[in-house]
């Protein structure tokens, strides 16, 4: 199975969900040789990638799904677990980029501000820091996590359940097994205005009109013009 070169944007459930339904709908079975490569996941729900067979019990040495490669993807998160793997074996997570979703939507007043007037802007920004573990495994074996990059404000944690933690090998990624590891500085949301002679904006998104004209207010962890706010 190959899942390559796709753009997933704002999906309300797992972007990629691989089950093995042997208890309810009987719609799917085990998979072998899965490659998830070169995809972009924007504002995904959690977990982004899910392996979730309906088996209630796992037999050591007999994972349901095998030979999974997740590599060279971009995960642009608000707050999410990237991989949740139940009953999966021989999974490699390599060369992926996990970062904050930067293209925020900025909401402000519908009408121009009069000089001296104020308005508070709002965004769809995620919390500054996420406590959700980036990766979780249940009844898994033979997992390798290596060579990935991580943005600020994530909990670089791998949770394991119904398995030996030694089944997860982390190489150079700085992930902690079954322990919180929020080592990166939280993301700080910043606001800037293109013309401070027209309006000023503070760190909370409070805009104050000080002159006539039009200014562009930008919000985000990165430069991303999201709207304009005229004053008069």
Automatic annotation (TrEMBL):
It comes from the Bacteria. Residues 188-219 form the BIG2 domain. Gene3D superfamilies: Single-stranded right-handed beta-helix, Pectin lyase-like. InterPro entries: Big_2, Invasin/intimin_cell_adhesion, Pectin_lyas_fold, Pectin_lyase_fold/virulence. This is Ig-like domain-containing protein.
């Amino acid at each position: 199975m190959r899942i390559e070169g796709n753009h997933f944007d704002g999906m309300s459930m797992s972007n990629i969900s691989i089950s093995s339904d042997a208890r309810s709908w009987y719609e799917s079975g085990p998979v072998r040789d899965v490659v998830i490569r070169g995809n972009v996941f924007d504002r995904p729900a959690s977990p982004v990638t899910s392996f979730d067979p309906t088996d209630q019990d796992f037999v050591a040495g007999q994972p349901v799904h095998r030979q999974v490669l997740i590599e060279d993807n971009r995960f642009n998160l608000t707050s999410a677990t990237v991989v949740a793997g139940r009953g999966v074996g021989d999974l490699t997570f390599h060369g992926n980029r996990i970062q904050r979703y930067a293209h925020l939507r900025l909401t402000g007043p519908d009408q121009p501000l009069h000089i001296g007037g104020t308005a508070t802007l709002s965004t769809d920004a995620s919390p500054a820091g996420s406590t959700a573990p980036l990766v979780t495994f249940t009844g898994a074996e033979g997992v390798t996590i290596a060579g990935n990059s991580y943005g600020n404000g994530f909990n670089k944690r791998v949770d394991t359940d119904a398995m030996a933690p030694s089944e997860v090998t982390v190489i150079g990624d700085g992930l902690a097994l079954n322990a919180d590891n929020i080592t990166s500085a939280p993301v700080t949301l910043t606001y800037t205005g293109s013309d401070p002679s027209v309006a000023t904006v503070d760190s909370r998104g409070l805009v104050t009109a000080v002159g006539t004209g039009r200014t562009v207010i930008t919000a985000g962890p990165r430069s991303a013009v999201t709207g304009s706010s005229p004053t008069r």
